[in-house]
Each structure stands twice: as structure tokens, then as C-alpha cells.
Records
---
Amino acid sequence: MKTSIRNHLISQSLLLLLSYTTCTPKAIEILLPGQSLNGDQRITSPGGIFELGFFTPGNSQNHYIGIWYKNLPNQTVVWVANRDQPVSDPISSTFLLHKNGNLTLNSPSTVAIWSTNSTSQVRNSTIAMLLDDGNFVIRDASAVLWQSFDHPTNTWLPGARLGYNKLTKQILSITPWRNPQYPAPGPFSFELEQTSLRLLWNSSETYWTSGNWTGKTFSHLQDIEEKHVPSIFSFVVNETGSYLSYAVRASAYPDPFIRNHTFIRYMIETTGQMKFFVMENGSLQWNLLWMDPMERCDVYASCGAFSICNPRNLPRCGCLKGFEPKFHKDWELEDHSNGCGRKTSFHCSGEGNSAFLVMKNVTYPKSPDSLVVDNIDKCRLTCLRNCSCTAFAYDNQCLIWGGNLFNVKQLSSDGMIGKVWYLRVAASEKEIIDSTAGNTKRKTTWIVIGVLAGIFTLFSIVLVVVRRRQSVRALKSFEHSLVLFNYRDLKKATENFSEKLGEGAFGSVFKGILPNSTPIAVKQLKSLLQGEKQFQAEVRTLGAIQHINLLRLRGFCADSTRRLLVYDYMPNGSLQSVLVQNHPLILDWNARYHIAIGIARGLAYLHEDCRDCIIHCDIKPENILLDEEYNPKVGDFGLAKLIGRHHSRVLTSMRGTVGYLAPEWFTGEAITPKADVFSYGKLLFEVISGRRNSEGLDDGLENYTPNQVANAVTKGQDVLTLVDYRLGGNADKDELIRACKVACWCIQDVEKDRPTMRQVVQILEGALDVGIPPIPQFLQYLSGSLTEAINYREPTSSSEIIFLS
Ligand SMILES: *[C@@H]1O[C@H](CO)[C@@H](O)[C@H](O)[C@H]1NC(C)=O
Ligand SMILES: *[C@@H]1O[C@H](CO)[C@@H](O)[C@H](O)[C@H]1NC(C)=O
Ligand SMILES: *[C@@H]1O[C@H](CO)[C@@H](O)[C@H](O)[C@H]1NC(C)=O
Ligand SMILES: *[C@@H]1O[C@H](CO)[C@@H](O)[C@H](O)[C@H]1NC(C)=O
Ligand SMILES: *[C@@H]1O[C@H](CO)[C@@H](O)[C@H](O)[C@H]1NC(C)=O
Ligand SMILES: *[C@@H]1O[C@H](CO)[C@@H](O)[C@H](O)[C@H]1NC(C)=O
Ligand SMILES: *[C@@H]1O[C@H](CO)[C@@H](O)[C@H](O)[C@H]1NC(C)=O
Ligand SMILES: *[C@@H]1O[C@H](CO)[C@@H](O)[C@H](O)[C@H]1NC(C)=O
Ligand SMILES: *[C@@H]1O[C@H](CO)[C@@H](O)[C@H](O)[C@H]1NC(C)=O
Ligand SMILES: *[C@@H]1O[C@H](CO)[C@@H](O)[C@H](O)[C@H]1NC(C)=O
Ligand SMILES: *[C@@H]1O[C@H](CO)[C@@H](O)[C@H](O)[C@H]1NC(C)=O
């Protein structure tokens, strides 16, 4: 009677296929003069890859003409015509090719709200069609009159241009959507500036640049010491003198990695971050391979005016005290382009109408004007007397900000004290804030704070300068991507291995800082089973594996007696450290779900997309690391192989792992990627409940989370009560039910019944549905047999359990 998840998934995909073949409206390939498109009619590219028609983004009520990949279950829109002029009714609107070559979008029926303005010399000779590279072209017998590739929106596809045309003075840049429901251009842009690419805010402030790329060849595995883009560009300086860059078609690109991917796209996110996605042949899943800036708060004006960006918080954006989002609806959709506005406005004529709030532990806003005045009091008066002044600071000179304040970033509270500055608000607003904060300090204290802060900053500047002076030695680059470190440098970087971050099965991890101030994590491997050559070969394979949810290997060190691996340093530690009950930060449900999907994506990549399938074998919260943005990164992958050929022996002697091991580790059956799926399921229970599964086991099976969840899911009971009590029941119910079901499917006894990691990703994303999982048998054994229970219990930190092979 047990319905296997596989059957269920097969019937799902059959349904999908059926719905494609029966419900798809008749596709048009070419639009002829006088012909139009409306309602659910579509233009399809000859190879059936792309499709053009009306679409509705997210929960919006509005309709837009767009281009998307035809056969992906999740619509990925790559181009939009009427970005900021939606139509409300696609039935009465027409997308019409005129006989003179002009193509217009008319709503309702007559008024043109968007047009290409293309004209043909020969009347009634134009056609419009969608090509297989996603380019929508209007051409007549002799030339291309207009093409969507010359009017990019938020996506850059292989074959499309980016650049500056000296003749038309036109900049071809890409701009993000305002929010997931509104494709109008946001405040950011990605464009070519002569020989480098850059990201800009308001077409004026550069917040990221690629550097000079002339004459370079680009690969996604570029030297990691340099900031780079995993790239498929080649630069062409047009004979007419304009700089144009062409994204080379995948097939023409020499890198075999790129050739293996069906779809490639660059996209600028509404957050102002640039992302590079690839999709492997046959998979229906986008993999995020690269993103810059990594941290959202590093984007210029990332949260809009009068906001504060906190890299250790989700959501990132908040308003300064005394301010609130200008448009709450947009703000909730993570559209911060309008920023925050004053809760209470004030007339600036009288000096008593406004007052200052002290801002601490945050950075200065961007672009102050500086004046020379004697003291902080005069600086304050200067600000008070200037109607456009919104903030001031005194730092040996008087800094005055006028108009909107941008780029205020929260500093971490651990030791780093930011500069103090003063925010101008209505006097009545300050009273409210002070009274709610119980702040009754006298007016004079801020002077003291200001002076102290000044002294402190001076001191820190001296420190930084001294540090910079220290020798910066070039590191040997190895195989384009990995750095070969020598032991002396690593010893120095880690201050003689003094700051231990953790201890794992393969060795201890220490924090270090490279001469260029990049923090690193250095893993000292315990075992030397492999020779230097073989070790290097394996490390090279690992170094080539890059995914946003996998911990990046920066380099290594190997000599006769030592083996060390150098990784990116992850400021937020491991998932385990964040899940413990006394951690000051409580991850909300969104963050947890984001982490669960991220880990699944990373594992799916390891299992299916690498050259050799890699089974992680040791998935547990300690091996999931969190970057500044709380993106999960799977660590320690591939190490079992590095240590030696008999890695199963090493693995089964690992500590702290037993609670996550699949039954096949005990029965001696072959280990497949499904063993990781099992461990992932166990981990997912802990992410949901916020406690170790083993904690509940001490009080009997009733408190064992997997058992509780399995029971609740099977009986259709409310699972909200099983979520971490610290969330106070705040969780998205659909997501929670999906997570619970997936976790139960993952821990099925028979590996064939478990989903693949790829399917897990799809289920969590809501792209696939699954049925009710049966209760795994081992849970039933658990209730009966104490010996089995011990196998699933966490061993204490010092004991090592060795299983017989
Ligand atoms: C699928 O669509 C949903 C909702 O729009 C989105 O949240 C999710 O990220 C998408 N998945 C992929 C793989 O793009
Ligand atoms: C076409 O011309 C109209 C009016 O001259 C202009 O508003 C519109 O932006 C143009 N469309 C394009 C796609 O350039
Ligand atoms: C194209 O059509 C639009 C809307 O009718 C019009 O404003 C524009 O002038 C036309 N462009 C040309 C070149 O005919
Ligand atoms: C215009 O071209 C279309 C298709 O090519 C044709 O069916 C139609 O008769 C032509 N109209 C005129 C007035 O030439
Ligand atoms: C955006 O840039 C324009 C000029 O490039 C400038 O006039 C305008 O003030 C800028 N907007 C903001 C909010 O800074
Ligand atoms: C970029 O580098 C090339 C070759 O290294 C050099 O000739 C060129 O002047 C540089 N361009 C800029 C804008 O720095
Ligand atoms: C160079 O620019 C001219 C004018 O914009 C254009 O017609 C031509 O196709 C361009 N050549 C290349 C190789 O892009
Ligand atoms: C490309 O795919 C083929 C077939 O799946 C595989 O054998 C080859 O190793 C892949 N190449 C790379 C660089 O991933
Ligand atoms: C993947 O797809 C691309 C483009 O369709 C094709 O050129 C390539 O040969 C395919 N690779 C494999 C390994 O199937
Ligand atoms: C007021 O402050 C703004 C912003 O610093 C500055 O540009 C302007 O010149 C000041 N006005 C006067 C009258 O000082
Ligand atoms: C600022 O950071 C210090 C620690 O450096 C902390 O004691 C203080 O409470 C923080 N202040 C605010 C307002 O967060």
C-alpha cells in the first residue's frame, strides 16, 4: 500500500507533460504585417526554446509582453517590452506589426502604449520572429530593423550585446526589475565602461567594477585572488570606434564546462546584485554560480534613503529611527527604491523645531560636505541653521549631510565601534524616541561622546595604516584557481595556529588573515595517507567545484609532512552554532527555509553536476557554514576521498555523526547519494525544531522530533506546534508542511524511496508536490529496542564509535 515517492513524482511529471501538450495555445512562429498577438497567443522560437506573449509577474494583476524559456516549469522571464506600462486586459490589447514596420502594443485595442519605432523602406515586407537565442527581431528582406537584444531589460543572454554606441550615444545596460511583481527599471544598472564592467546606482555611483579586461581570457575558474566574473565575454572594439562586448555563444566558447550547459544567463537582481546562472543539460534547475557584490549591504543605496542595512539580519533593510517606509507595500516586496521618509516633518525656520538623535554602531552615510569649524557645538549650529542639513558629525572637522542619507550600515557589536553622528529629526519625534528608550541623559553627554569617538577614530586610522605597511607578498597561483601556500605564510596568517575555530573528523580549523586582509579558515589535516602528488590531484578536483552553496576552497599547502586546506572564512560560523538555544540571534522562518533550500541546492550540485559525483557522507549542522548573509555553504565535501581510499572506515569512525547516518551505513549496503539525502532529512528536522533530534530522545520517543513530525504529517495534524517555540508560531504554513513532508521522505528506510536532492529542491520551491510519507520503520524499531536507539543517539564529544565493516 505504500506509495513510493518515485511513482508519485513520475505521475507528476506526466501530468506536467500532458498539460503542456493539451493546454498550450496554438503557437505562432512568425508575425506578418497586419497580424497581431493577443490573449494567450504566443510566438515560439523555431527550436521551441523561447516563447513570447503576455505574462503576469507574481501576484500582480497586470499584464506585460515578455520572453521566457518555453519548457521550464517555473517561468523565467528574460525580457519585457512594456516594463512600466502594464496592460490590464490582454484580451482587448494587441501586439501588432504594422505594414510600415512599426510594432506597437495597443491597449485597449487602439492607443499605443509601447512601440519599437522601426520602419521599413519596403511597405508590407516586414516580419517579426523570436530566435532560439531569445532575441526577438523585426526584419525585412534586407536588414534587421529592430531587435530586443538592443533593448535589454534585466537579463543578459549569450549572443546579446552590452556596450556603448558612439554613433547613437546609446548605452546598452541592463537594469533590474523594481520588485518581483513590477518589471519597471530599478535604480541600478550593469554596463560596460570602455574595458571594464561595472554596477551603478542612479547611473552615477559605481559600487562594483570588474577592472580592465582587455586582452584577458575569462573563465569561471579564474584566479581566485582577483575579483573576477565567471565569464563568457570577449571584447570587440567596433571599427566605428564604439566599445561593444559580445557574450560569446556557448558552443564557441573554449571552456568545456560552459559547453555542457544548456542555458546561461546573467541577471541583475532587484537588490542590485549581479548573478550568473547556468542550467545543465536535462536539468530543469538554475544553479547560481556567481554573485557580486556578495553582501547586499555593499550595494550603493541598497535599502534606499534614510535606511539602515544590517548584514547580520534578515530582512537586511530597516528605517532609521524616526523614519518609516515611504511605501509599505513596495517595502514588503523588498523594493527599497523609494526608501524611508520622516514620520514627523518639521519646519526648519525655528531652531527649536528640530533636534538630533545620536547614531552609534553604524557607519557614516555616504558623501558628506566638510567644513572647518572650531568645535562640535558650532558644527551642530551650522546644521541647525541650514534647511537642507539632515545630519552632522564632528571628526576633527565638521561633516554636514544634506538631503537624502544613503548607505548607513549596522556594524557588528563585537568590538567594532563606529563613528558617532547626529541625525536631524523633528523635536517632537525625538521626545517620543527618547521617552520610549527611557533615555534621560543630559544634553552635554553627546559632546563627550563626540570627542571620545574622534580620538578613537584617529587611533584606528593609525592602526590600519601600520597594518597596511606590513609586507604584502605575492602568493603563487596554482592551476588558475587554487593558491599554493607555503607553510610559513599560513603559520604567519594564523598567528601560529592560535585561533581555533573548530575541530572536525579530518582535523582542526584555524582562523587566519592574509596579508591583503582577507580572512581565511585553515584546516590542518590529521592524516597523511596520500602522497603529495595524489593529494594535489585530488585537491585540484575539489578546487574546481564552485557553487554558491558550497564552501569555496581557496588554496592548499602540501609538503612532505603537512597537508593544509585554505577556505573562505565564514563570519557566522556553523549552522550548529546558530541553532543552539542560547545563541543571541534567532533565525526566523524565512531564514531557515532559505538555509534548507540552499543546502539542498549545494548537495544537488555535488551529486549531479560535478564531473564525478561526490557523496558528502557527513552532512550535519556542524558542516554547514553561514556567510555574512546567512547563506548556507556546505563544507568538508570531498575530504573523505582526500584522506585515503578506505574512506568508509574513516567515515564510520567520525564523531558526532551517528545521528545523521543512513541505515545502509549499518547494514553494509552500497552507499549512494541517497545516504546524504537521509542525513539531510535528519538535519532538516533540526532546522525546523531548533534543537538536536537527540535531545528529545532522552525523554522517550514521544519527544523525538522526527517521530513527532512523521506522526503529525501522517495524521494530517497541525505541524506548527513542532516549529522552534522561539518563533512563536510565526512560520509560513505551506512551506512548513512541505519541509516536514520532505524531511520524512528523506529518512525513509529504503534508499529508493527517498527523493534525490534535486527533487528535494523542487519540492521545497513548490515546483513539485509530494504525497504523505509513510512512517519510517526505524522509528518503529526505535520505540521497541534500546540498542537501536543508541545507534541513533548523539555520542558524547570525546567518544569515537567504530563500526565493524
Ligand atoms: C520558482 O518560482 C518561485 C515563485 O516565483 C520562486 O520563489 C522560486 O525561486 C523559483 N524557482 C527557481 C528555481 O527559479
Ligand atoms: C518610440 O517613439 C515614441 C515617441 O517618439 C517614444 O516615446 C518611445 O519611447 C519610442 N520607443 C522606443 C522603443 O524607442
Ligand atoms: C510607431 O508607432 C507609435 C505609436 O503609434 C508612434 O508614436 C511612432 O511614431 C511610430 N513610429 C514610427 C517610426 O512610425
Ligand atoms: C501584405 O503581406 C501579407 C503577408 O505577406 C499578405 O498576405 C497581404 O496580402 C499583403 N498585403 C498587401 C496589401 O500587399
Ligand atoms: C541621480 O542622478 C542625477 C544626475 O545624474 C541627479 O540629478 C539626482 O539628484 C540623482 N538622484 C539622487 C537621489 O541622488
Ligand atoms: C587596459 O589594459 C590594456 C592592456 O593591458 C591597456 O592597453 C589599456 O590602456 C587599459 N585600458 C584602460 C582604460 O586602463
Ligand atoms: C559597428 O557599429 C556599426 C554602427 O553601430 C554597426 O552597424 C556594425 O554592425 C558594428 N560592427 C560590429 C562588428 O559590431
Ligand atoms: C561534460 O559532459 C560530459 C557528458 O555528460 C562529461 O563526460 C564531461 O566530463 C563533462 N565535462 C565537464 C567539463 O564537466
Ligand atoms: C548540452 O547542450 C548543448 C547545447 O544544446 C550541446 O551543444 C551540448 O553538446 C550538450 N552537452 C551534452 C554533454 O549533452
Ligand atoms: C546647506 O547644506 C548643504 C549640504 O551640505 C550645502 O550644500 C549647502 O551649501 C548649505 N547651505 C548653506 C546656506 O550653507
Ligand atoms: C554598540 O556596541 C557596543 C559594543 O561595542 C555595545 O555595548 C552597545 O550596546 C552598542 N550600542 C548600540 C546602540 O547598539
---
Amino acid sequence: MIPQKGSAEDLTSTAVEQKIAEQPALSNGHPNFHSNGANGASTLPGLDASKLIITRADPTVRPVPDEATACSGTETICTDHMITCSWSISTGWSAPELKPYGPLTLMPTASVLHYATECFEGLKAYRGYDGRLRLFRPDLNAKRMLMSTLRISLPGFDPAELEKLILALVAVDGPKWLPRSRPGSFLYLRPAVIGTQPQLGVQAPKEALLFVTASFMARLDAPSGGMRLHTNPDDMIRAWVGGFGYAKVGANYGPSLLATNAARERGFGQILWLYGPEGYCTEAGASNFFVVWRTKGPEGRLQLVTAPLDDKLILDGVTRRSVVELAREKLAGELEVVERKYTIDEVIEANKEGRLVEAFAAGTAYFICPVSQIRHRDYDVHIPMVKGESGQYTSKIKGWISDIMYGNVQHPWGVVVDEQQ
Ligand SMILES: *Cc1c(COP(=O)(O)O)cnc(C)c1O
């Protein structure tokens, strides 16, 4: 018998896709709905940014440190405020709050602490050279957070409302924490959802908390000498077909630290995660990974290659997507953009034959970060950096995206924040 859609063979992906489609807010506006497992859709209140309750912090309590000081300690320095919004299965989403940054209260039996019912997002607010404050494609982060949230059976919401809440936090804290006197600087925004129900037992949480913080984060996009990658140990993988590597759920990250720490002890920055006996290249740490090479043969064509999304092994990065779209638009005729499975052996072969042109990691935290070396088992791939600390396409692409983020060009991807002065 041919399996039908919805059969046991594709239960998980079908369930997540169906749940996303079930969020009526995406098509109908308010009132929005949630659904949680067997309880189905209801008409309880959805996430609603227009209900935001604002409690201002005393602005004199927390001075703004300079970037170097802020990033030198062992604690993330957050801004004056945070957003929180609680949910319960019986009352839906409460009115969201913008309030002074501070600790959360959780019971030791809270679902997130035992069953990894947590997902998150990462995006930045950029102080432009034109004085304005922008987010970069925040709609994509909000949609991805909905997908991750549903993947771990936390409550759905209208992603447009989450985007408004993120904008509200940046509108309030932006002027002080990302002053116009610091063009070219950024804050890191961290939305997250956690299961808070204080009950042990493996089940979908009946209570949850959504929160958003804004903080300093070090610049990671230009390590001296380029980023050095080490492939994962043979007996360890980051994600697998049928797993949840495509979702930004906390459960993907804790278990990766063992390999990352071992690589760091050997002087490498991140793991290049390979998959399967073929050794398919997937991601570099928590960034997507790109190589530029020439195809074999006398008329070798120039290609920008990255792993595909369709097997759901890798995260659908906003930066990755932007690189792919911009390269297709601006480098057409010069370089072909290819999303396909490719192996570490192909990279090594290209390197041995002098066809490897450059490589970079792409993600919000590391932005576009040139890669100079990959160690696989005992073999070292040394990657050219013709522009000194970067390859030429890496540097071009980085420049285009950076111009959008910092307002050197006006582009629909750069969403201007209406700041509260
Ligand atoms: C967050 C993340 C990325 C990058 O995604 P962006 O949307 O570009 O920040 C890539 N891979 C993994 C595993 C990630 O967690």
C-alpha cells in the first residue's frame, strides 16, 4: 500500500506542518487561537501585542557599559527591560508585559528543567550609520520561533504579534542602550518559550512562558586568521533525519558542547558537523556553512554551495537564506548558487585540485565569518583568503548584508524601529 499523507511514516513533520496551518491568526487576524495536542483549537485569547502592559525601570540604576567591558565578563549584560508573557491551557495567552529586567521564578518541577521544552530565537538590533535603528528580517525569526515552539508541543501564537513585542522592547531600550553616538553597533535579541508547568511526567506542558531579552554580544565575525573548523568525532552527530536539527530547540545545543570543547582545546573555533557515512557537510557550530569552489573540468564553473533544507537536518538560517537570495540576484552569470548535499571528501578533493576558492559560516551570532581551515581526521584543508582576512565573495556578500542592516542602503529587509525618545 502506498502511504498516504498523515500516515505513521511522516507523523512528526505532518503534525508540525498541520499545527502551523491550524494557527487561524495567520490567515484570519483576531481573535486568534491556540491548539495544544488532543485539546484542539479553542477561542481562548491569543498572543496580543496591543495588550502590552508597560512598567518602566528606573533608567539611572543601570548605566550602559562600553562594548569591550560589556563583553569581557562571565554574565550577559542585558538592557533595562524584558518582555514576558505567560500562557496556560485554560486561559490562553495573558497580556504581555514590558518590565524591568530580572530573574524569572520557576518551580524545580517545571517542565523545561526536565524535558527540554524550550526553544529560542536570536536576532540583532542594529544602530545604522544614518542614525536609525533596524532589525533584519524579524518576520522570519518570528515564524521560525512558531515552528520550533510547535515542534516541542508548546502553545502556538501569531508570529506577527511576537514581532511587534520584539519591536516594542527595542523601541524602549534602543535609544539608551544603542545610542546614536555608536553607529555600527548592535544589541542581541533573545526571544524564548519555555514549558513552565510544575508537574513531573513526560507530557505537553499546560503552562508556558514567552520572554524576550536584549543584551550585549561580542563581535564574532572576524576572528584573526579566520575561523578554524574541526569535523565532529566519528561517533557523534548533531542532528539526524527524523530528528529536530531544523528547529531552534535548546535540546540541540547542550549535547554539542562536548565536541565543541574538545575542538577548542585543540585550537579550533567550531565543529563542522558531518552527517552519515558519506560525511555530508551540514553546519558549522550554530551557523550555516558555505563553500565557493570551481567544478571539475577545463571549463570549471564557479559555485557557491551550501547544504539543502529538504531533509530537515539543518536550521533554515535567516542569514543563510539572505546569502542565497542576494548571491542569486547580484552574482548571476558570475557564480551559480547550489543548495545540495556535498561531502567533506568533495571539499578535500577540490582543495587538492586547487578548486576550493573560499568558505564561510553564516548566522546571526557569527554574521558572515571567513573560514580559513578545516581539520578532518588527520587532514588539514587550508582555505584561501585572497583579501587577507577573507575571501572575495565572502567579503562582497558580507558588505551587501551589512549595508542593509546598518542603513547604508534602504531595503525592505531592514525594518526600522520607531524609537521612543
Ligand atoms: C541560529 C542557527 C543558525 C543561524 O540562523 P540565523 O537565522 O542566520 O541566525 C544556523 N544553524 C544553527 C544550528 C542555529 O542554531
